[in-house]
Design goal:
With 142 residues, this protein is an all-alpha fold. The chain has one domain. The protein has five helices and no strands. The two termini are 31 Å apart. 23% of the residues are buried.
Length: 142
């Protein structure tokens, strides 16, 4: 049996797949931006000039460990949303799954951003938790 010829314009299934890709890309880009903007806000609110009147000071009064946990989770959320965007985009445009080079490069960049914005401990915590997510992705491959 010979395969059916495909139309130049594509099929209904291709249109649905394109719509799903666009929708998922918009969602993951929005999540990436939200996590990054909140991370930058926490970084700004932690500066000595602003900390007395910022929400970070209020959170530090409640529990001094709450701010580093929130900062770490914001950067891990940024990493997860960004890596999902990169993997989906690479698969959509090239029809090839993203390689580990893109994923590891994203891990290094997000860890460096976290380290530079906050401190060494936040950068290391972001790295460790993000690597846990990468192990999860690796296990999904099978």
């Amino acid at each position: 049996m010979s395969p059916k010829p495909r139309s130049v314009l594509g099929t209904v299934s291709d249109e649905i797949e394109k719509k799903e890709f666009v929708r998922s890309t918009i969602i993951t880009v929005i999540f990436s931006l939200v996590f990054l903007i909140l991370g930058v806000a926490f970084w700004y609110w932690s500066t000595p000039e602003v900390i007395d009147t910022s929400p970070v000071n209020w959170l530090l009064e409640i529990n001094p460990f709450l701010v580093p946990v929130i900062e770490t989770l914001l950067m891990v959320g940024f990493f997860i949303a960004l890596v999902v965007t990169i993997i989906n985009s690479r698969h959509y445009f090239t029809e090839i799954r993203a390689g580990w080079l893109e994923v590891i490069t994203t891990l290094i960049v997000v860890t460096a951003i976290s380290w530079a914005m906050f401190e060494v401990n936040i950068g290391i915590a972001t790295l460790v938790i993000s690597m846990g997510f990468l192990v999860y992705l690796y296990m999904l491959q099978d």
